[in-house]
Amino acid sequence: MMPETAPTIDLQRIGLRYGRGPEVLSGVDLRLAPGSFTFLTGASGAGKSSLLKLCYLSLKPSRGLINLFGQDVSTLKPSQLQVLRRRIGVVLQDFRLIDHLSVWENVALPLRVAGRARADYLTDVNELLSWVGLGHRVDALPPTLSGGEKQRCAIARAIIAKPDLLIADEPTGNVDPAIGARLLRLFAEMNRMGATVLIATHDLGLIDEVSARTVHLADGKLGEGLGPLRAA
Amino acid sequence: MTDIPVRTTPPAPQTLLPARPEQGRALLTVLIVMAFLAALALLFSRGADRLSDRWSAQLSQSSTVQILLSDEGAREAQMSTARDILRDTLPEAALTSLSRAQSGALIQPWLGDGDLPPDLPIPGVIRVDSPVALPRETLERRFGEAGLTTVMDDHSRFSGQLERTVERLVLLGLGLLVMIGVAATAVSMFATRAGLSAQRDIIHVLVQAGATDGFIAKLFVGQAAQRGLLGGAVGAALAVMLWAVVSFGPARGTVGWAGLGDGALDAAVLVGLCALFGLICALSAGWAAMRQLAYERRRA
Predict the structure, then answer these.
(1) Could you state, in chain order, the average pLDDT of each consecutive group of 10 residues for chain B (300 residues)?
(2) Lowest CB count within 10 Å: A94, B134, B246, B292, which one?
(3) Which domains does chain A have, with CATH numbers?
(4) Are B42 and B77 part of one and the same domain?
(5) Are residues B180 and B294 in the same domain?
(6) DSSP assignment of B212-265
(7) What is the dihedral of CA A86, A88, A92, A96, to 10 degrees?
(8) Rounded distance, CA A138 to CA A105, Å?
(9) Are residue B41 and residue B75 in the same domain, yes or no?
(10) Which residues on B lie below 8 Å from A121 (Cβ)?
(11) Which domain range does residue B208 map to?
């Protein structure tokens, strides 16, 4: 990983509304230092997924400024945005696996998109699939996988390109505690190698596993700590 | 951690876009029909052009000379003089003199099939089959010097009309080709937009993985090119089969192929048409995909 001086994510006075609806995010400021590990918590519908979408450039804010890796994303050309996206690994809540591609192809997708030769990443993909417990299912299609297997496949896809920023939305929601702990160790390992990690979760057990900064969203506002989640 | 990866060579790359066989079949059928019509238009244009050339060549080799007889009694003498002049001017030509009865039969459509009065002056007719065109001015001068009044018909008026008609038919065929090309472009663009819409989730994943618009557009270009080439090849093959029936079946000798040489030449042109079909489909798909992706990005 390249050493970064600028924050990996720097959100300034972000506001977000869908259409003419009310603001789901209002005046949000968030700075994540390079190599940091952060949990994002908040009640269902608090706007966690929306905030993550802004961070992985799937949404544009209604107002405010987004800097990623020190670059103001509003000034970047589409091709430059794609270069930025290649530095971000994303695990989505609904996995978004491509149903007609095998597990192997799904995981290798970011490397294929980046134009890498297949022979170059054969070992990486095999090792990672083995690590997440899918070594025996490389040729399986996603519709035949269990929820936990899909989730591990999605996580493997997010980290295969060794991203500088890893964003995960409820990454352990569908797996048993043992697998969840193993996946968390994977995130911690990525973080130890220098990746900035941002995980949205309800899982207090997961938060307790890692000594990391926690921020919470409530009523569209971002605050430090667990907020009402711990109290509940 | 106990899993042992068994794969030692990279798997063959899978296509990133699903085949969507049902929609694909319907679209392919449309493309086959369009390619079939385009190929028929092309074959018809080329066939009409060749037929015109054949007819023009035949017409240019065949002419008639009418000798307007001053007196029915002088028929043989004046016909003989005219033949001598023709033989002298066109030594290569084959001359066929029509008898009075044969000449009379030619004007039956106007005068009916009753017996013609014996003193009715019926022009003497000599048919001239010559590999070279009639030297009209020389012949007119020599016939005049011999005191013969003649009318020469080398079918130039008819062959001119024929050529103009065929030119229009060829233009019509080419116009049809252009129209079919425009329709193929529209179909390919529509299919690409529908594909982008249907594959929205996959496109989202690709975008999130860092795929550029060009990368995504290429996926649709590849699909469209394959579809266009296949549709073009099947459509053209069907047209060739129909044209072979036209050429060697009951309609033999009309606009169809006169021989295998014509067929081979047309087949080569149709290979070009298939390639053009694939190219049109590919380019229009690429253009539509780039535009649609830019539009979606502006909307996001």
Answers:
(1) 58 82 82 94 88 81 85 83 90 86 77 70 86 83 89 79 86 91 92 88 92 93 92 94 84 74 86 92 94 83
(2) A94
(3) 9-226 (3.40.50.300)
(4) no
(5) yes
(6) -HHHHHHHHHHHHHHHHHHHHHHHHHHHHHHHHHHHHSTTTTSSS-SSHHHHHH
(7) 10
(8) 8
(9) no
(10) 10
(11) 21-56+167-299
Same domain, yes or no, for B120 and B141? yes
Give contacts of A 43-72 with B, CB under 8 A: 56, 58-60
B97 CB-near residues (< 8 Å, 6+ apart): B79, B83, B124, B125, B126, B127
CB–CB of B231/B35 below 8 Å?
yes
- Contacts with B290 from chain A: Cβ below 8 Å: none
Which of B148, B178, B212 is the endpoint of a domain? B148
How many residue contacts between A and B have a Cβ separation below 8 Å?
91
- Tell me the residues of chain A between 137 and 166 that have a Cβ less than 8 Å away from chain B: 138-139, 157
**Residue A151 structure tokens:** 């989730």
- Domain tally, chain B: 2
A88-91, strands of its sheet edge to edge: A88-91, A165-169, A196-200, A37-42, A213-218, A221-224
A 10-29 residues inside an 8 A Cβ radius of B: none
SS3 B78: helix
In a domain, B269, yes or no: yes
- Determine the distance in angstroms separating the CA of A214 from the nearest CA of chain B, rounded to an integer: 25
